[in-house]
Structure formats: structure tokens, C-alpha cells
Amino acid sequence: MLHYGALKVAAKRQKECAGAVLQDVHARVCGLMEEFSPDALAVESVFTALNMRTALRLAEVRGVILLAAAQHGVMVYSYAPREVKASVAGHGHADKRQMQMMVRALLSMNETPEPSDAADALAVALCHLLTEQARQRFGLPNPRAGTKPRALRAVAGSGGLANKFRPLGTTRGGLPRIVWTR
Fold this sequence. Notes:
By secondary structure, this protein is mostly helical. The chain has two domains: 11-137, Nucleotidyltransferase, domain 5 (2-Layer Sandwich), CATH 3.30.420.10; 146-182, no CATH class. The protein has seven helices and four strands. The strands form two sheets. The protein has a two-stranded parallel ribbon. Helix 3 links the parallel strand 1 and strand 2. The longest helix is centred in the C-terminal third of the chain and has 22 residues, at 116-137.
């Protein structure tokens, strides 16, 4: 882990104009991409929240992050909240505290990551890491291979075992069905 944290925008800045927060998010994400040059970006997919205003605000911020990734040619992977929780905590209904403790344990951190939003971001990154490790270990094709930015398409190669199996959709629980062929 190189860096983690949460962006806090001052209340005064939030009141300046409707797009001030989004502008700050874009600038910070672009700065981090330039500083660390990531190969991929993992984000949590938009979910239906109890508060529609919160859901819309999250969707706006997510859109700005996707824009920054596209501008820097970084491939984006999206994971549902339950998928992240299942991957990191072992079940899809883990609460914030459980997620913080699992992130701390999996990353061998001395302290619990704070705020909980930072722990959530680390959990999304861990989910992506675990998913990619499993995909590569079992020679699974990249389901998002067709969504790469144009700059990355020329560089991408094909997987070694890609011709030996074919996905057949998903099971009732959302797990991929794979049939081995000879």
C-alpha cells in the first residue's frame, strides 16, 4: 500500500458553487494518478441508497473519478458493495467496523484505517486485487477487456488459457459458471 486517505472539502468551498467539490475531487484524483501512475482504478458501483440526494451526490463524484481515469488512460473496474464486503470480510452484509478490522488485518496495518470511508476505499482496492489474482491464477478471461481506454488496447495481450474454457453466464448466487473444454 502506497497511500490512503479521504478528501475533506471545507464547508466554505462547498458553498462557493455547485461544482467546487467536484472540481476539487477531479484535481486530487488527477494528482494522485500523476504521482503514482496506477495501472487500474477500482471503484464501488452506484447503489440505491435510502437518501436519493446522497445517491445522486455519490454518482456525481463517481462520474468525475471515471472522467479523470479516462483522461489518464487508466482502466477502471467497478465492484458492487456486497461484492466488496464478501471478498474482504467473507460475507456481503459486513458492517463498517467489520470492514475496517478486516482491511487492517489483511494489510497488516498497525492502526485501524480512519475514517471509515478510507477503509472502504482500501476494501475496494483489496477486492480488485483478490479478484485479479484469482482471474490470473485460474486463467480466466478479463470480462472487462472490451472496456479498456484506446491507449491501453494496443498494449493488452491475451490470457494463456483463454481458449480452454468459456463462461456461461452466472449462477443464481452471481458466481460465474465455467465449463472446461478440451
